[in-house]
Amino acid sequence: MKIVMFGAGGVGGYFGGRLAQAGCDVAFVARGAHLEAIRRGGLRIVSPKGDAHVTGVRASDDPRDLGVADVVLFTVKLYDAERAAAQLGPLIGPDTMVVTLQNGVDAVDIVANQVGRAHTAGGVAYVAAVIDPPGTIKHTALDALIVGELDGAVSPRLLALKAAADRAGVGFTASPHILVDLWSKFARLSVFSAMTSITRSPLGVLRAQPELMAMLERAAWETIAVGRAYGVPLTDGVMDEVLTMMRGLPPHAQSSMLSDLERQRPLELPWLSGAVVRLGAAKGIATPTHEFIATVLLPFVKGGPPAMV
User: Which CATH class is domain 2-176?
Assistant: First the structure.
């Protein structure tokens, strides 16, 4: 099986590195200093699960250099997804599967619009990993993938990917209900990203303030209501999952969106709280909490210092 990681940051670099370490044929679409470091010295993983150093890694900033793949794990940030999806063509063969591993719920349609739904699968990644420094992935927690065909089939290509992940020691679930999995994570992530970002605070600060936790719950119910309006069968148990996650994470935990905000990087806000508002409006679902969040963070969406007039 030939696997291309379209994106070599925390998600793509970690899972791609583990697959390559296990002997899979893995290539990376990367860019900038990270690409050059991989070309020079390979890809390193620093992890509590064990460090790794994969050498002789094929990597390029041009997918045409890598050829047709059996599986593409599409791991770019959401604000790069449209541009990146338009470059998938050279990687697509008759039975290529492109797995979207973005936050939010928009990536499936973004990719399917470029390569077709038959080539598109949904995916959920659970991993805490970042590039630090270029050429190295620093992994701190979590190590699991949930992947499913859009029609719910447990297909041969899905099982082949599972076998590769099993060899790499990566937790892998072949899901027959991937839209439920995507929206369940979206309910958790949209509120975790939103609340830590608007307060500029880690989770422990939120837990210390009942008013903030009540706001978090209101935001989560809004996301669940929007998902249900689109026909996704989300049960009330999703809220239990949200609260279990918020209670279980360490007090210093903060979202990647807060980290991006602190570093004046672009934010995925339009595809998180912004998506809840946009998708809710299309179905007549009120989302006042997410609307507030999306509005107050709007000056910081593009990264850098906010504009003034």
Answer: alpha beta
